[in-house]
């Protein structure tokens, strides 16, 4: 990795997020400049940048990305360096000294040994360390693969296996554990091996597509035109066809390699990155980047091509900072920003899969980020935007905030109910999938059982409610705290291909910073997101979300639970909306329908809010139908809301009383009976159901207020017989005296 920076590229000095872009790099970069540096090397197995200088090698960890991280230095022997990598356990340094020899050095002791080619006719093209149980390191030679295991006792390598092939060049990524070996006159015939935790899996040989030129010349495929990427846990190979101006996409299965379409390119030089499972195709000459979400094998871009943005570059202070340095000081070690740091798509930029850019000549390393807010503001299709955001995991907090804000705004703007229902289906389905796979981090343990015969069709409610299918098996979910923090390894080539639900296929980094092992499983072949919304969705009126959501580090998934829908969408919207609440009721009913179809339990607060909205608009008949058909599930909260709303409608209050009795809330039922004046009936109910927690004074007060001495006498007699020791209580003495006065007055 070497070269000189070019001054022919545009220099930008944008700071903040005012520039129009969906992808950005953030200033400051990681500066890897060391005096006497002999180049930069990327060790993707350890996620480390290496810079040899004199008799030292300096290394910077790039995961997690921290521009201020200090390098670690190791002493190495002098000599040419073609490639350098640390072993995955960090104990050895492997240095390719020539096309025939690789030197190994123990980091602790400094002892060295070498391993070379047996034949002078073969050359070493490169090497990589592996966590395959059969071997520790693989030499890629023009004659094939040599697999070596390291013996810690003898401190030597011994040959485990040789795979004979004619190899022109190769590409390998530690993330996929996949190596592709190119052969043939045009270098378009490939043999692939995945060195997985179950052994070595050989892929079927396949040939890449290449268009012919007008002169019928046969172009030769170069290594820089082939990329191995992992997206949603699935491994793809992307190949640049410069003649056809296409980026061909191949997907790897255990038993086949299938070409899955092509993407147009608009530049003779193309680079590829992957950020949070979004494919970024850099049109280097055109200086723009195009985003694709190939979750459903879609070939449509997420949005229009836009430039790569540099954020945080202190353009205004760079000139003054430069003038403060003494003459003769090396620009490579200066800490001030310079114009080459603001050069977009420089000639010496090297794109490191998945999401890094190395400016080789300036010794700078940039990390690529998605601007979710900008992407969300580029489309008005709410459901597709939410679908895209629900698949984002790197910035789960921001994605969740955007989804909640968009849902609120769509309701406040009174978008068509069918459109809002579609958006709600996206959120509910995403929560269900996320919960099943363990990505959602809940706060409370609760069984999520859907009601069976809910959602009967109701006529005249102003909302279309469809009966849900109750013939399927009931599914229970549980909110279990801490599930989101567990290690969740999933094969890139899974047996069920379950990664296609958008919530699987994410792997947690292991101790050396690399992804968990991605295995070639018995995947079944299937054929597989355009997005976002207006900037108003993240306006100041949604600041409540930022202040009340869980702290950012605790949010591991953008999935939104029913509780969060109530707290951050329905309750705030109910406060802001004025006029006829029929629209909000229709939206909530659609939410309940969607939850029922996914067998997700809804907390009583949403049902209670629905009852409140219907009663507020005096739609008591419809409220009764909602209760009878169990669209509103029985609960104490709903019963209390019915009793409150029923102050102006006796039938609604009776529904509340009946619900308390149905739920066996005997104490509450007795209290409300007494408050309504049915204290004698309440006494009979107390005796039948053995209620002992109700205060006798409440009944005595009600009987005395009726001015009926017979009722007061009956209540006194009941409690005297029902509660031991009542005759000696102050209540008995007080009301017995009052009863005597009432009888004397009557006489």
Automatic annotation (TrEMBL):
Cellular component aspect of the GO annotation: late endosome membrane; lysosomal membrane; Mon1-Ccz1 complex
Region Disordered: start-end pairs: 490-518
InterPro entries on file: RMC1 (IPR040371), RMC1_C (IPR009755), RMC1_N (IPR049040)
Compositional bias annotation for Polar residues: 501-515
One BP term from GO: regulation of autophagy
Domain Regulator of MON1-CCZ1 complex N-terminal stretches: 40-157
Protein name: Regulator of MON1-CCZ1 complex
Source organism: Rhodamnia argentea
Name of encoding gene: LOC115737749
């Amino acid at each position: 990795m070497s070269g000189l920076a070019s001054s022919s590229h545009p220099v930008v000095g944008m700071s903040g997020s005012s520039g129009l872009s969906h992808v950005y790099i953030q200033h400051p970069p990681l500066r890897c400049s060391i005096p006497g540096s002999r180049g930069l090397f990327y060790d993707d197995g350890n996620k480390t940048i290496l810079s040899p200088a004199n008799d030292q090698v300096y290394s910077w960890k790039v995961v997690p990305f921290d521009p201020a991280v200090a390098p670690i230095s190791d002493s190495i022997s002098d000599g040419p360096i073609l490639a350098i990598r640390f072993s995955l356990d960090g104990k050895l340094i492997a240095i390719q000294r020539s096309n025939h020899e690789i030197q190994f050095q123990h980091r602790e002791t400094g002892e060295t040994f070498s391993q070379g080619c047996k034949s002078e006719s073969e050359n070493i093209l490169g090497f990589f360390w592996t966590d395959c149980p059969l071997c520790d390191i693989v030499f890629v030679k023009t004659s094939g693969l040599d697999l070596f295991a390291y013996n810690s006792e003898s401190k030597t390598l011994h040959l485990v296996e040789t795979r004979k092939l004619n190899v022109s060049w190769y590409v390998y990524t530690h993330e996929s554990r996949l190596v592709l070996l190119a052969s043939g006159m045009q270098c378009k015939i490939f043999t692939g091996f995945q060195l997985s935790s179950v052994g070595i899996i050989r892929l079927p040989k396949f040939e890449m597509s290449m268009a012919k030129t007008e002169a019928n010349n046969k172009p030769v495929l170069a290594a820089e035109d082939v990329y191995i990427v992992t997206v949603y846990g699935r491994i793809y190979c992307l190949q640049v066809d410069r003649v056809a101006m296409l980026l061909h996409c191949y997907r790897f299965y255990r038993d086949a390699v299938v070409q899955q379409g092509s993407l147009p390119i608009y530049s003779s030089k193309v680079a590829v990155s992957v950020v949070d499972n979004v494919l970024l195709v850099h049109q280097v000459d055109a200086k723009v980047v195009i985003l694709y979400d190939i979750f459903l094998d879609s070939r449509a871009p997420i949005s229009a091509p836009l430039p790569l943005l540099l954020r945080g570059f202190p353009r205004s202070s760079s000139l003054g900072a430069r003038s403060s340095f003494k003459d003769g000081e090396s620009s490579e070690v200066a800490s001030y920003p310079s114009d080459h740091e603001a050069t977009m798509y420089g000639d010496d930029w090297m794109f490191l899969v998945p999401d890094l850019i190395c400016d080789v000549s300036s010794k700078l390393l940039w990390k690529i980020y998605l601007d979710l807010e900008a992407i969300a503001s580029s489309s008005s299709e709410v459901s597709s935007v939410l679908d895209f955001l629900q698949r984002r995991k790197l910035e789960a907090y921001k994605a969740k905030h955007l989804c909640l804000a968009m849902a609120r705004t769509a309701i406040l703007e009174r978008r068509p109910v069918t459109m809002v229902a579609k958006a709600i289906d996206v959120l509910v389905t995403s929560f269900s999938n996320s919960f099943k796979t363990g990505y959602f981090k809940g706060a409370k343990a609760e069984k999520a059982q859907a009601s069976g015969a809910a959602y009967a069709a109701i006529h005249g409610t102003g909302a279309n409610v469809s009966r849900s299918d109750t013939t399927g098996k009931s599914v229970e979910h549980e909110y279990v705290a801490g599930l989101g923090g567990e290690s969740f390894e999933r094969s890139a080539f899974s047996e069920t291909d379950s990664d296609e639900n958008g919530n699987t296929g994410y792997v947690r980094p292991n101790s050396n910073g690399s992804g968990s092992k991605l295995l070639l499983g018995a995947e079944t072949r299937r054929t597989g997101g355009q997005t976002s919304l207006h900037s108003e969705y993240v306006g100041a009126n949604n600041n409540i979300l930022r202040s009340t959501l869980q702290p950012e580090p605790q949010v591991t998934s953008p999935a939104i639970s029913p509780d969060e829908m109530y707290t951050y969408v329905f309750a705030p919207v109910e406060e802001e909306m004025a006029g006829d609440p029929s629209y909000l009721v229709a939206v909530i009913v659609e939410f309940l329908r969607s939850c029922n179809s996914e067998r997700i339990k809804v907390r009583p607060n949403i049902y209670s809010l629905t009852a409140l909205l219907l009663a507020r608009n005096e739609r008591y008949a419809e409220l009764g139908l909602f209760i009878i058909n169990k669209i509103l599930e029985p609960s104490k909260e709903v019963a209390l809301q019915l009793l409150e709303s029923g102050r102006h409608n006796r039938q609604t209050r009776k529904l509340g009383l009946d619900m308390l009795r149905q739920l066996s809330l005997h104490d509450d039922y007795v209290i409300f009976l007494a408050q309504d004046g049915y204290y004698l009936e309440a006494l009979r109910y107390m005796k039948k159901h053995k209620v002992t927690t109700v205060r006798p004074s409440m009944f005595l007060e009600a009987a005395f207020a009726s001015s009926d001495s017979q009722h007061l006498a009956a209540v006194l007699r009941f409690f005297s017989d029902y509660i031991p020791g009542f005759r000696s209580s102050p209540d008995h003495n007080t009301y017995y005296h009052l009863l005597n006065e009432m009888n004397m007055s009557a006489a």
